[in-house]
Amino acid sequence: MSILQDKQLIASRERHMAELDVVFTGQTPRRPFYLAGYTAQASADATTDPLAWAKQAMADLEANAACLTDAEVFRPLVFEKWLYGVHFTDKLFGAEVYFHNEQWWSKGLPNGVGELPEIDFETNPVWKQARDLTRAILSLGTTVPFITTQVLGGPFNQLFNLYKEHLLTGFYDNPAGVRRDLRVLTDALIYMHNWYRQTIPTDQFQPIYAAGRCMPRGYGQMCGCATQLISKELYDSFIRPLDEEVLSIYPNGGMYHLCGAHSQHLATWRDMPGLRAFQVNDRATEDFDLYSSTLREDQIFYVFPTANMTREKMLHKTQGKRTVFC
């Protein structure tokens, strides 16, 4: 039997998950909650031979299974492979996506705003790659590691990837086209979120970057990086209803990932019941005092300390409540 089916490792995982529940219920944890998981490494091409990738990743997790026995830091083991990086959805919709300088890039779509094609999930080759990879991981029969989705992002993030600056002008010169494309994109995101939720066992399901954003079960996740580019008024009118729709498919709502200057949206996000957590890093972390004083008491922070906003400053502010240190 693989160590990735070991009941003691599962028990260790669940002890940490119970402590994470304490953070999410607003109680003071016995110690600050630290999260630093281990994501499987593999060299096989996951797009052409997903089973080979899964077997290599399994061997790597087996070799590093002791990470999960750390009593003070939660180090979950994770099966995770981002096909096309953060541009998975771009590729799904037909954008040219390419690898350069050690990361994925996207040229977006050549067509105009209002012309986003609908996805046929039965025949789409990119979705087949993602689906086959998840099924290959599941075929190994492991029960200890978490298994994640692809980078599904959020309605605005992903549409901005596809249209770039043309989307920003589209809010003013083609608002009907923007709304139409946001609807098409949101429907596709909801389809994929639901497929993953229905396919991956509940105990093992996590959204992306589980090593640094692992949440209690029943929570989803979106990326909101690009919201720094738009006003509160545009977000409230165009984006908020769709973000709430995506979050609503999860029993407990979900998390927003932020890495820029997003403070113009804090009043809106405070009033969104399904928005339960924020993962902030880089520029967003600099606004931690503002986030923690403006948002609701039941909204949780996943934080990456910076030179200016240190762990010590954040601990002084929160006393360990509402905070996961990554």
Q: What distance separates the N and C termini? A: 32 Å
| Strand element count | 13
Question: What's the SSE pattern?
Answer: HEEHEEHEEHEHHHEHEHEHEHEHE
Class by SSE composition: alpha/beta
Query: Helical amount among residues, as a percent range?
Result: 40-55%
Provide the gyration radius in Å.
20 Å
Residue share in β-strands: 5-15%
Global shape: globular
Largest sheet: 7 strands, parallel
Count of DSSP-assigned helices: 12
Mean pLDDT: 96
Give the low-confidence spans.
Answer: none
Walk across the major sheet and give the strand order.
3-1-13-12-11-10-9
Structure, briefly:
With 326 residues, this protein is of the alpha/beta class. The protein contains 12 helices and 13 strands. The mean pLDDT is 96.
Question: What would you say this structure looks like, in words?
Answer:
Helix content is 42%, strand content 14%. It contains twelve helices and 13 strands. The strands form three sheets. The protein has a seven-stranded parallel β-sheet with strand order 3-1-13-12-11-10-9, sandwiched between helices. α5 packs across α7. The radius of gyration is 20 Å and the shape is globular. The two termini are 32 Å apart. The mean pLDDT is 96.
